[in-house]
Amino acid sequence: MHEVANNDLDDLTGTLTRSLHISKEEDAPLFLCDMGYGLPREERPRKERLNAIAKQLVNFLQWQDSSQNAPKVFVKVVACPDPDALLSRLLEIWPHDALPDRVSVSERSLDTFVNNQAVYLSPDAPRALDPLKPPPRVMIVGMLIDRRVQPNRSRLRAEKMELSLARWPTLDGWDPQEPFNVDCIMEGMQQWHWNRNDGIGGFFEAAQQAVRHHCERHPQRIQHIRSHSVLNQ
């Protein structure tokens, strides 16, 4: 199996560093970015799809790197049909020479990496995450980058794989089934982990910040589902 990571496993002088890195990864929160959801039958995904996925990931990683907060969620892209092509595109738009060590890309399927802590984040999930409880440690994000709304696609994938799934709690002015962009969901979940660790704020503060940044990054993006919901705290 082909897996690409940003660690030189052949560097003997880095053995201890690599061991410490693995230990940290086992304890830290993890995003499993599921490309099998967005590209289920594409052996060689089109360039524009890879570009869109890479851009969303870089948006999140740049925001994440700009913060001094820790721990930073690890990012593992899984079920990638062409790891080299995606990694190459990531490096083209990433402003540094190498991606962070916490980022890796694998062609192995999602079920290789899931455990009983994993939760598939889906706007179509019947259950909402509890904002008063800790966020899930292992968070699955479907990497479908498409201007069209495709209802129930992530829910059906999670159910077929018998995975736990949940959506965001209701946010003021947004329908709970609104399909937020990948970078928005990842920022909101990362900030929720930080807020929980710091004891300052919680889910709603994290999500409102993520949505605000999302609107700044994507001012042209259409809100698909209008709502007059109130914050459900």
TrEMBL record:
Question: Does the record carry Kinase as a key word?
Answer: no
Q: Which UniProt keywords apply?
A: Methyltransferase, S-adenosyl-L-methionine, Transferase
Keyword S-adenosyl-L-methionine assigned: yes
Q: Which Gene3D superfamilies match?
A: 3.40.1280.30
An annotated Gene Ontology molecular function: methyltransferase activity
- Tell me the ranges covered by the SAM-dependent MTase TRM10-type domain, including all copies: 1-225
Could you provide one GO biological process annotation from this protein's UniProt record?
Answer: methylation
Domain of life of the source: Eukaryota
Name of the molecule in the record? SAM-dependent MTase TRM10-type domain-containing protein
Which species is this record about? Fistulifera solaris
